[in-house]
Amino acid sequence: MKKWLRGLAPLIVLPLIFSACSNEEGEETIEVAEVTRSIFYAPLYIAIEEGYFADENIDIDLTTTWGGDTTMTALLSDSADVALVGSETSIYVHAQDPSDSVINFGALTETDGTFLVSREPMPDFTWEDLEGSSYLGQRAGGMPQMAGEYVLRQNGIDPYTDVELDQSVDFANIASAFASGSGDFVQLFEPNATEFEEEGIGHIVASFGEESGTLPYTSFITKESMMEENEDALVRFNRAIYKAQQFVENESPEAVAASITPYFDETPEDLIATVVERYRSQGSYAQNPYINEEGWYHLQDIMEESGELPQRIDYEDLVDTTITEQALE
Fold it and tell me: Transmembrane stretches, by residue range (predicted)?
């Protein structure tokens, strides 16, 4: 059992105390824990800023919980109603046979969102260039690391013998560790990757999203009991997300950037637009909240290859499409 799952086990049996409630304006508040703050999650911020949640009589209380373990802990301990996190976490929790299952009910992203960044310019980069290098990786068992390992193996690189893999740095500090001189290569989310490129700290040489295929990489997850007791709120939630997904798909990157700028105080608006276009062009943003069934099984293939899959789970067991079906009627 993974170390962070050992820490989660006692939380699963806590009594249910839902935080979803109505505020003074009559809106229903839904507390959302996001695994990190990233332009990768642009549709969520769009849904808030463009008033799509408000149109559905929902007020979002958004907290960044920095890492899959802390995000799932927030959901299991009733500190959040909805977790925005990798779908692999739902498989880990399910393997413990919890009394209140966690269910994936909406897709936000459908590819890996990280990029391979080198310390030196490498205009003619090939994957063989990684051999013998120091590689600053992500947390073991997390989707970024597993997708990264999958891509390396697909390109003939063994992540544990061909590179010097360093996984000692906490998720929230990986970018700063690389900026401070750790690693020849690093796997980074945006906007860090593009910021580093513009500042000359690093250079984007490959996209893990392009290389690893369609995945339920970041999904909206909630407890089964929440779905039973607050189904209508979740339907309205997904309807708002869908409107935001269409905004991201159809509006200009500049329009998306202008809307989500408040979530990235230290990132220039033109850089946000560049990142939005990069993610959109590689199909990272899901165009609707349906979780791809083929991608669900591809996710488990990647987990199994990394030695992290506790058991195979059927799509219907942990993915609920009825919320989205009602939202898009």
Answer: none
* Predicted confidence (pLDDT) per residue in 216-269, tens digit: 999 999 999 999 999 999 999 999 999 999 999 999 999 999 999 999 999 999
Tokens of 282: 């590689």
Tell me if residue 44 falls in helix, strand or coil.
Answer: helix
CA distances from 100 to 76, 190, 199, 223 (A): 9, 34, 47, 6
Question: How many CB atoms neighbour CB 56 within 10 A?
Answer: 21
Domain ranges of the chain: 3-111+215-327, 114-212
Buried b (16+ CB within 10 A) or exposed e, 268-287: eeebbbbbbebbeebebbbe
**Reported pTM:** 0.89
- Residue 188 is which amino acid? L
CATH topology of domain 114-212: D-Maltodextrin-Binding Protein; domain 2 (3.40.190)
Contacts of residue 142, Cβ cutoff 8 Å, sequence gap at least 6: 67, 68, 86, 88, 171
Assess contact for 97 and 9: CB atoms under 8 A.
no
**CA distance linking residue 116 with residue 262, whole number of Å:** 27
pLDDT in tens, 62-109: 999 988 899 999 999 999 999 999 999 999 999 999 999 999 999 999
